[in-house]
Here is the input.
Amino acid sequence: MNCPVMDNFVILFMVFKNFRINIIIRLLLMLAALVLLAFWLVHHHYLRSGYLSIAIIILVTELFYYTDRHNRDMSYFFSALLSDDYMVSIKDYQKGKSFTGLYKTMNEVRNRFTALTREKETRILYLGSLIEQSRVGILALDSGDRIQLVNHAFSEITGISSAIAGSSLGEISPDFMKVISEVQPGRHLVKNWKTGETVRPLSLQVSGFRLEDRYFTLITVQNIKAELDEKELESWQKLIRVLTHEIMNTITPVVSLSSSLNDLLTENNGDIRNPALSEKLKNGLNAIVDRSSGLMKFTEAYQHLARLPAPEVRQVYSSDLLKKIDTLFCPHLQQEKINFQIIFDGKPEVFNCDPDLIEQVLINLLKNAVDAVQGAVNPSVVLGISEHAVYQLKITLKDNGEGIPPENMDKIFIPFFSTKKKGSGIGLSISRQIVLMHRGMLEVRSEPGKGAEFEILL
Here is the structure.
C-alpha cells in the first residue's frame, strides 16, 4: 500500500535524479532534524519535539522506501527474465554513472536473452519443418515407451494415426512395439507391415541416445516398396532386353523363310501332283507365318515395355487433367451405363509431372476398371484427386467390381500376367513403371466381391 506522505517526499526529491544526491539530501535532512530535536528537548519544547520525531520517523521510512524501490525494480526485471518475458526493460533515470551502466548492462542482457530465444524458436521451427517434410517416419520414445516426437510420415507409413506426443506406444500399437523389440540398436530390419488391406515392406532402424540424464530411443521407418518395385522392374527390363534380342534374332529369318516358301509354293502349285500334299504344305506354311508374326508382335510389346521415354516434368493443373480424362471416358462410360464420378475439392491446384505419361496411366487403370465392373449391379467407377501429407498428391481410382483374388495380388504388376482372355498383361506393368519414373508409388487394395482401389502417390 502506498503512503501519501511518502509519495509527496518522492515528488519532492524527483527534482534531483542522481541517486547519491538524493541519499545525501535525505541524510542531511535527518541530521538537521535530529539536531533540532535535541535542541527542542533541551529547551523543553515537548510538543514540537513530538511532531519532529514523527517527521524523523517518516524520513527514515522514506529512505528505506527509496532504496528498496531499486531492489524491487531489479527483482521484477530478473523475475520477468526467468518467466521468459523479454518485454520488460529498466529505464535510465539519470541516477548517476554507476546506475546508468547497470541499467544499460541489464537491458543488454535482456536483448541477448531475446535474441537467443528467437534463435532457439527459429531453430525448433526449422527442425520441426524438416521432420514433418521428411518422407521417412520418425519416432522418439523415452525410457517408459512414451512418445516424445513423431512426424506425420510415421503415421502415414505405419497407419498408426493415434500416435501423438505424450501417449504410450505400447498401449496404442502393441504389435508395432513388438516389431521394434526385434531390432537391435544401431541395426536395421526389413519387415512386412499390414496397413488396412495393404501389406508394405518397411525398413526399420533403431538407435538410442542420452540427453542430459534421460535416455531416448529413436526409430526411423521407411516404406521401401518403391525401391523394391524399382529393383524388380529393373530386373524385368534386363531380362526383357535379353529375351527380345535373342527372340528377334531367331524369329526374323524364320518369318522371312516361311513367307518365301509360301510364295514359292503358291507360284508352283501346279508342279505338285498330289493336291492333298500341296494343301497340307500350304496350310503348314501359313501356320508358321501366322505364329511367327504373332511372336514378333509379342516381342515388340516386350520392347515397348523396356523403352518408355523419360518423363518431361512440368506444372500441371489438376482440374485440367481431370477435365481431359472426363472428356475421353465419359461418353463411353455413359454408353456402357456405368456411373462415373470425379471427386476433387480444388486441392492441390497444381502439381509436377509428365501429363502425357500420367494420362496413359489413368487410361490404363480406367480401362481395367470398366472391364472389372462388367456384370456388376449398378456399376460405378470413382476417380479422385486429393492432397497428401508426404507426396504432392494422391490419385485414387475405385470400382465396385468383383475385386482381385488374393492369390493374384502379387502378380498383377508382373509383365504379361493377365486374367483377361484378350489382355496383353502389360498395362499395369507400364503404369507402375511410369509412376516409379516419377519417384512415386502405385498401390492396390482389394477385397473379393467389393471391388478394387488403385492409389497413385506422386
About this structure: The chain has four domains: 4-104, 134-223, 228-306, 314-457.
